[in-house]
Amino acid sequence: MLAGKRVLLIIGGGIAAYKCLELIRRLRERGISVRAVMTKAAAEFVTPLSVSSLTGDKVFTDLFSLTDEAEMGHIELSRDADLLVVAPATADLMAKMAHGLANDLASTVLMATDKPVLIAPAMNLRMWLHAATQRNLETLKGDDILVVGPTEGDMACGEFGPGRMAEPAEIIAAIEAHFTGAKPAARGPLSGLRALVTAGPTHEPIDPVRYIANRSSGKQGYALAAALARLGAETVLISGPTVLPAPPGVTVTRVETARDMLAATKAALPSDIAVCAAAVADWRVAEDAEQKIKKKPGEKGHKLALVENPDILATVSQLKKGRPQLVVGFAAETEKVIEHATAKRKRKGCDWIVANDVSPASGVMGGDLNTIHLIFDGGSEDWPILPKQAVAERLAQRIADHFTDRTSDK
Ligand code: C5P
Description:
Helix content: 25-40%
Number of domains: 2
Strand order of the largest sheet: 13-12-9-14-17-18-20-21
Radius of gyration: 25 Å
CATH superfamily of the largest domain: CoaB-like
Shape: elongated
Bound molecules: cytidine-5'-monophosphate
Distance between the termini: 34 Å
Structural class: alpha/beta
Strand content: 15-25%
Number of strands: 22
């Protein structure tokens, strides 16, 4: 039972601190009492008054104001709790915890406790990926500290990647899992299923230094792979050249050309789900030169002969043996979006097509927003304009619903 449990919430100084207000509300709805400690930096992001209004208790911020006998000491603060939750756990708080530093109330409480501790890291993706943070994370895991998140997505700093604090619902699930002894929610509706996702552009060599490419960033496919993995699918991401880091929990195979991408896709089969989000080059140079092509004196131009690349989506969709149960393609269109995408679904033989308008005015290519029409057998659905991250989550959920419906039909 969760009702009656006591959580000591330690709020670190990061933009994600605002999510703690929601977290406190949801914990209290479940009958869990919450007492909060805030670092000095946390109070720059949310006010102690907001936090205390929601906890219904004093907020503790200062180590040296706890000396009064009538006040709670830092030892009592942790003694009084069943679980300590650090959210957001900043890089600084994680480092202090890993190294046993105690120079403010939050870190002192964390040092003085013998209670279980759950952290929800949140920071810029480069800080998260930094070797020092990853080392500290390993140390903390070795110390039996529980960890939820971070997740991947658009960050307040304008970047994209891992480092976003887990949503309050995920933190609550982790807290519930701790108290009830249930398995944490790494298992989801897609558990036991395999998914493969292609993403990014392909590079087709012209000679050793030149290539044909396109403006795909890979963001949509990476976000999808992350979302499928979060729902429990064993996910393989086959990625053309991008600057994006591997999404957490996803196996990434990096390739350059369409032919490599096809080979890696075949190697990732069998799979229950295939989502082809890559912007595969339609053509490659018939014969890429072994040496850099030189300008010849007097030559006015240079002709390149192009040949067609294999179509990965069509190949996977039309497999006679071992076809994934659900094959999803993307259609980037600049006009008559639904009409063209509907024809494409038939031509390629996939089950769903996610059609998006990539006309220059839409700003979709390389941008963070996407307007989607989901096209399936016998109909289509228009989605509102959404961040690519939200498109990924919604699509992953649709995929999960598809598999749940099939199972419950049986
Ligand atoms: O024909 P078009 O390139 O517009 O189709 C887009 C869809 O087909 C996308 O899902 C893309 O990933 C996939 N595709 C592919 N292999 C190709 C070309 C496109 O998998 N050679």
